[in-house]
Amino acid sequence: MSRVVIVGASVGGLKTAQALRGEGFEGEIVLIDQEHHPTYDKPPLSKKYLMGAAARHEIELLSERETQGIGALSIFGSPAASLDADRKVVTLEDGAAVPYDTLVIATGSRARRSPWGEGEHIHLLRTSGDAERLRDELATTRHLVVIGAGFIGGEAAATAIMAGVRVSMVDPFPAPMSRVLNAEVGQIFSRKYAQEGVEEYFGRTVEGVEQTTDGVRVVLDGGEIIEADAALVGIGAVVNTEWLESSGIELDNGVVCDSTLRAIGHPEIFAVGDIARWASASRNVSLRLEHWTNAVDQARVAAHNIAHPDDCEDYETTEYVWSDQYDWKIQVVGRTGTDDIVVIGSEENQRFAVLYSEDGEALTGALVVNWPRALVDARRAVAARTDRAEIAARLTGDAARPVTPAL
Amino acid sequence: MARIIADRSACQGYANCVVAAGDYFDIDDDALVIVLREDLPDSERKRVEEAARSCPVSALVVED
């Protein structure tokens, strides 16, 4: 009976194991992870888990019954140290050698470290341990500086504000969420953050972060100093590919895969989640996405392709990521970088959508806030490349109806 | 025949189920899941279980 070894037991790895059983795979499944208790979900770490509103067992990815249904052998607490792709063996840091017939690489990414040094009151937010340290800090902190106004920074800032903590936010871009949304839409978020009480330092760079006896001093360009009790550095993620460097498999800021999520030249090795850089057959580009839904969808396709090697599916996706900040349910569909936008609904009523088009005709991306019908329509329309004008007209009719707060 | 059970108190309106199996799921104006057909024939089971697994808050279960 064949053995599938999955390295990384976060959402991509666990969902692959689960999907393999769904495909009828009856061989052995081995799960490896560097963390002792890796099987938790990450989105709550910057929201309700950070708030203290969810216990550890409430953020498990799988129920006990689901875990039993998979029946995997779990080897947790020792990182994979190297891969011998010719002999088909993963070696762990503690020296254990784990042979495989099929390997799934799902080691994901980690928080980019602070280039300004580390310290007791300088935080990152990626693992449950990080979230627990920051949660404990927020219990006594009066003033938190958030460096980086992306999703993690925006969510942690919202959680801190709702917990009564004063928050200052710094980002070199002139508006938050600027790496994902265009500048004009970033300003919508800047207005929202200001309304909620965030002290904004956008378009400003950090020169240094100094740990003092009882807090931090964040030094900005021009010499301005923010004195605070703690800082959170949320400046992106780095893929965990170091253990693969001596393996000979092709790496390029991720594991380079074909359109079916197989590592190039190694049909028995797959990659899923943040670490997979795959060749999209329909778009003719190489893509790598750090999204929850992408990891789950890739897990499904990888499991199918492992169980049915003669009937391999290409992996195709429409990007989808969400963020909960204050009373806003924010959902981002497709590609949202272009300046060609149409805004429908009402920012004032806190229910609106921004419709993006890369060619001036088809809907290629959307930002949706507090508007479930628009989310469903946008996800379908982006996948089908529906005319933006058509979807805008349909949703404008829906926008005229009274708002029922969904929260 | 298997049945689909939805926990509307857990649902957050992410709509992954609607995208995966729009003939079985929709969401209403309050961003809560609606199960369009509760009874699940065996021939559809794998696809609907995959849709359930794509729920970010595990609000969907397929039961025998």
Any overview of this molecule?
Helices cover 25% and strands 30% of the residues of chain A. Chain A has helices spanning 11-22, 48-51, 64-70, 128-138, 151-162, 183-196, 292-307, 372-384, 388-399; strands at 3-7, 28-33, 73-76, 80-84, 89-92, 97-99, 102-105, 109-111, 122-123, 143-147, 166-171, 199-202, 206-211, 216-220, 225-228, 230-233, 237-239, 255-257, 262-263, 266-271, 276-280, 285-287, 320-325, 328-334, 341-346, 351-356, 365-369. Helix content of chain B is 27%, strand content 27%. The radius of gyration of chain B is 10 Å and the shape is globular. The model of chain B has no long low-confidence stretch (mean pLDDT 94). The longest helix of chain B has 12 residues, at 42-53. Chain B has a three-stranded antiparallel sheet with strand order 4-1-5. The chains are: A alpha/beta (407), B alpha+beta (64). At the A-B interface, helix 1, helix 7 and helix 8 of A face helix 1 and helix 2 of B.
Average predicted local confidence, pLDDT of chain A = 95
Spatial gap, N to C terminus of chain A: 50 Å
Helix content of chain B: 25-40%
Would you tell me the structural class of the helices and strands of chain A? Answer: alpha/beta
List how many beta strands of chain B DSSP finds.
Answer: 5
Unreliable stretches of chain A: none
Count of beta strands of chain A = 27
> Which parts of chain B are unreliable, with pLDDT below 50 for 5 consecutive residues or more?
none
